[in-house]
Amino acid sequence: MGRIKSKKYQGVYLNHLENGDISYSVMYKDGNRTQRFTVGKKSEGITETFAYNKRNEIMSKLRLGVDPIVHKKKKEVTTLNDLAKVYFDAKEGENRENKRQHSKYEHHIQGILGDMDIHKISKDDIRRLQKSLADQNKAPKTINGITTLLKAIINYSIKEKDLSLINPVANVKELKIDNKRERFLSIEEIKLLIEVVKDDALLYPFVRMSLSTGARLKSVLNIQKKDIDLTSSAITIKDYKNGTTYTGFFDSDEHKEEVKRAISKIKANDYYIGGQSTPSPNRTIQRHLKKIMDDLFNQDLDIKDTKNRVVPHTLRHTFASQLVIHNIPIFTVKSLLNHSSIEMTMRYAKLAPDSGSMAVKGLYG
Q: Where are the alpha helices (DSSP H) in the chain?
């Protein structure tokens, strides 16, 4: 294939390769000699604009008396592991989250891309990482989270350490996620779950509070004694998704009495779930509850079948679904879920027992 001069940028050439890729090179004058320098390939994230800027950088160095070719030869290889070290060292103060992200990098990214020259990692390499994770039955949401971490690691060195690089993750599309869970627990299934966890000092109060308020996992774990008003039967809930607070309620006097007994033994700032001065870890609840839910409800279901698998978040979905089934107005449901828009709540409207049949029946006498 031939070499084509850029129509837009002076001194930039596009070299069309046999495999369909494009290699960008630049031409410049070094004294009386014309020099050619290969910048990189399109598959590596290089663009005409980047090549043009690289040519300007070379010209600037020449004017300063610096040989850009010698400089290039002296440059040491920078690997993704090098960037990861810089990234995690900078975030050393964010203990728990930093450790979790570091573990994610070591388990899912390091073995595939860690030793690669950062300047040679391409979009195809990112897609190879995504495929490897998918082959391990990782959910699309999990894969997107790992890809986002990779993007953040590279971006940190680009922005904070002036790394001259186009992030190869920048234009890699996230995997499509279908978050529209359809599975919710029936009354019989709710009773079964409660029966199984009734002797667990951590899971039982979590399941009961989740089913009573519909709050997300982190919100339930962060309910403190001072958030519970036994007089008005109200519970102040922190919504970490949108940074607001809202009010939940007890689903029965029996549940209220259970909570009353539990909080009588703890201090105002202690957390209801666990009864300690610090909240119980999300992962502890997820791990233990997931095993029980898998045994009770998920047998023979594919791990990727997110619509039908029962997970801890199903408790929130169950709360909303049962409200609608019991003819609670959709705007009340919106308020109890603390949804930011009615559109988010309308997905449950189809569960209402009276979908309009009574309104139509006898319309014309």
A: 48-63, 68-74, 80-90, 95-108, 110-113, 123-135, 140-160, 187-197, 203-213, 217-221, 253-263, 282-297, 314-325, 330-337, 342-345, 357-360
